[in-house]
Design brief:
It is a single chain. With 92 residues, the chain is mainly α. The chain has one domain (18-27, 34-91). Helices cover 55% and strands 0% of the residues. The two termini are 17 Å apart.
């Protein structure tokens, strides 16, 4: 079996009930060491200069997008669970 997914991806709009599952209070801040910041890969540096990266570095943007993204992941997880359960039922 091959299964591929579009979500989670832009546009970050999770359907009910997933869009209400998370808030900005559920966002875990990244933990970065000084060395990681000082020795950032050149590709990461280049990407950080793009408009979408600059926008996503703003707290207001992250506080809206990350909870939606988390909701999309929960939706995907629930649907993968449905697929696995269906597959198990078909084997019996």
């Amino acid at each position: 079996m091959h299964v591929s997914y579009i979500k989670p991806h832009w546009p970050y709009m999770a359907p009910d009930p997933y869009h209400k599952m998370y808030s900005k209070d559920d966002i875990i801040p990244p933990i970065r060491c000084d060395e990681e910041i000082k020795t950032r890969h050149s590709v990461v540096d280049a990407y950080a200069k793009h408009e979408e990266s600059i926008n996503f570095s703003k707290d207001a943007c992250r506080e809206r997008v990350i909870p939606s993204y988390m909701g999309l992941i929960s939706e995907l997880d629930a649907n993968i669970g449905r697929l696995i359960n269906f597959s198990k039922m078909r084997k019996n």
